[in-house]
Write a structure and sequence with these properties.
The chain is α/β, with parallel strands linked by helices. The protein has a single domain, classed as Collagenase (Catalytic Domain), CATH 3.40.390.10. The chain has six helices and seven strands. A seven-stranded mixed β-sheet has the order 3-2-4-6-5-1-7. Helix 2 crosses helix 4. The chain is globular, with a radius of gyration of 17 Å.
Length: 215
């Protein structure tokens, strides 16, 4: 299993992002993904909801909508329970306190299997809070941008990093002050997401046909 870690360097320079708004619209219908969010770090739920809006805005550019399922945890017992396993095409995002095994500059991690597919990613809330307290944008903006990056790893598979846009391995503090500055997918990334999603759709249809036949 490959583990993709997202690091953020606080630098004074930035890169221009490539928007994929027109690309997503030109390539076909909207894709909808389901993301189950487990807030295990006890983050204020209002911040989680705002972060989801930030991430959703990034994904609307390439024509992807996200169905957020905010799930019950020990720190959020008032929420609805969700299954903690995921089929291909269903993603699970955990907001955690940072694992000691991770390096200090890791803000999130996505877990990709040997087959190039993954369904789980973790976001390290402690590191996001540090950046927020340093004055670099709102908590929700930072959290949502990191969410979008880690989900990008799950949607794109191996070798998802790029020199520009949301999938850069390092983001600069300006990217959080003005999210549109650096958040976007390249045309090739949009195409890859759609190709992989077509595989998911095909697999689902095949399973549905088998189930119907069995009945």
């Amino acid at each position: 299993m490959s583990i993709w870690r997202f690091r953020i360097w606080v630098l004074s320079a930035g890169l221009v992002a490539l928007s994929a708004v027109a690309q997503g619209r030109a390539m076909g219908s909207q894709i909808q993904i389901v993301v189950s969010v487990f807030n295990r770090a006890g983050v204020d739920q209002a911040s989680i909801l705002e972060a989801e809006k930030v991430a959703a805005k990034i994904y609307r550019q390439p024509g992807i909508t996200i169905d957020w399922q905010n799930c019950r945890t020990q720190t959020r017992p008032e929420l609805e329970p969700c299954k903690q396993t995921a089929e291909r095409g269903e993603l699970v995002l955990n907001v955690e306190r940072q694992l000691r095994a991770m390096t200090a500059d890791a803000y999130g991690v996505a877990f990709i299997g040997d087959d190039g597919w993954g369904a789980f990613c973790d976001i390290f809330y402690d590191r996001i809070l540090e950046l927020h307290h340093d004055g670099h944008a709102s908590e929700a903006t930072i959290l949502g941008t990191v969410m979008a990056h880690e989900l990008g790893h799950l949607l794109l598979g191996p070798d998802a990093h790029s020199a520009i846009g949301i999938m850069r391995p390092q983001l600069h503090f300006r990217d959080f002050l003005t999210p549109e500055f650096a958040t976007g997918f390249s045309r090739s990334q949009v195409e890859k997401i759609r190709e992989r999603w077509a595989q998911v759709t095909s697999t689902r249809r095949a399973k549905a046909m088998i189930t119907t036949g069995a009945d």
